[in-house]
């Protein structure tokens, strides 16, 4: 009984003492519970800091309309709502708790989270990170659209290049040939020296924009970039020989016949 009346009495005092101080702060029960100088175990300031921390996260969604891709950037805001139990006089109103928090000197903080681009993604024009490994609209580079609609490890596949092999390579432009990449699709690659090319087993072993070429005249699978599509011309058949030691991806031309 004594306990009950003491509680009753203190709440009457609190209710009477709800005045404003010179800062315009409401000296109400909520404020007292948050301030609670006599409860050093209450993490009032820390709890207020979390409550007043708004997080704004940049997100993206993709829309494709009639083959035109638009990346829409939007922001997702997270506002904390948890009011600690000791601040129960504030629990009916987040605004009351915020106000009490401001009155103990905690200022609201807004953190904007912009994702940093991970492997295989690029930010185009300071925009959000986009997949450039398999996105046929941004294949290997921002805005590089694949005519074929297929982007493999950041390189456009070329369907008309149906993956020819050393010894019977189809040409696809000046000094370019239709090779096969690791998944079996054709791509148009340059005739370059094998020596500096990286070894590979899968497209993922290669840098963005390169694929693992499995049908060149090099004696091993090599990471190879693509010939620009504009360099493609009518295919010309070339019969070369596999050069095991040094060699070029396209091999050497056949010896002249006399
Ligand atoms: C590839 O380039 C090398 C070096 O220039 C050249 O010897 C070879 O003939 C080329 N291969 C083809 C098929 O054009």
Structural description of this entry:
The chain folds into 2 domains: 2-114, no CATH class; 151-257, no CATH class. The chain has a 3-stranded mixed beta sheet. A two-stranded antiparallel ribbon has the order 1-2. It is built from 4 helices and 15 strands. It has 258 residues and is an alpha+beta fold. Helix 3 crosses helix 4 (94-103). Residues 1-18 and 229-245 have low confidence and may be disordered.
Short précis:
Helix 2 (29-35) crosses helix 4 (94-103) and helix 3 crosses helix 4 (94-103).
What binds here, in terms of ligands, is: 2-acetamido-2-deoxy-beta-D-glucopyranose
Please state the overall shape, judged from the principal axes of the Cα atoms: rod-shaped
Task: Provide the residue-averaged pLDDT.
Answer: 78
Strand order of the largest sheet: 4-3-5
User: C-alpha Rg, in Å?
Assistant: 34 Å
Poorly predicted residue ranges: 1-18, 229-245
How much of the sequence is in beta strands? 15-25%
Number of domains: 2
Termini distance? Answer: 121 Å
| DSSP helical segment count | 4
Supply the helix-strand structural class: alpha+beta
Helix content: 10-25%
Oligomer: single chain
Number of strands: 15
Keywords: Signal
Signal peptide: 1-18
């Amino acid at each position: 009984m004594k306990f009950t009346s003491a509680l009753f009495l203190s709440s009457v005092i609190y209710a009477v003492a709800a005045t404003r101080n010179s800062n315009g702060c409401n000296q109400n029960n909520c404020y007292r519970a948050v301030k609670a100088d006599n409860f050093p175990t209450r993490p009032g300031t820390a709890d207020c800091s979390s409550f007043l921390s708004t997080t704004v996260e940049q997100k993206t969604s993709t829309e494709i309309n009639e083959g035109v891709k638009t990346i829409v950037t939007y922001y997702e805001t997270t506002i904390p709502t948890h009011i600690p139990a000791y601040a129960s006089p504030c629990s009916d109103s987040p605004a009351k708790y915020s106000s009490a928090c401001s009155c103990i000197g905690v200022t609201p903080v807004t953190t904007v989270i912009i994702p940093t681009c991970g492997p295989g993604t690029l930010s185009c024009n300071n925009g959000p990170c986009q997949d450039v490994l398999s996105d046929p609209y941004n294949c290997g580079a921002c805005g590089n659209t694949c005519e074929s609609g297929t982007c493999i490890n950041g390189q456009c596949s070329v369907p008309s290049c149906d993956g020819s092999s050393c010894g019977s390579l189809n040409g696809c432009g000046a000094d370019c040939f239709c090779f096969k990449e690791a998944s079996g699709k054709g791509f148009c690659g340059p005739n370059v020296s094998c020596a500096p090319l990286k070894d590979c087993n899968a497209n993922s072993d290669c840098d963005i924009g390169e694929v693992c070429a499995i049908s060149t005249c090099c004696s091993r699978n090599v990471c190879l970039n693509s010939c620009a599509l504009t360099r493609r011309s009518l295919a010309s058949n070339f019969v070369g020989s596999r050069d095991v030691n040094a060699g070029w991806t396209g091999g050497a031309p056949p010896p002249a016949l006399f």
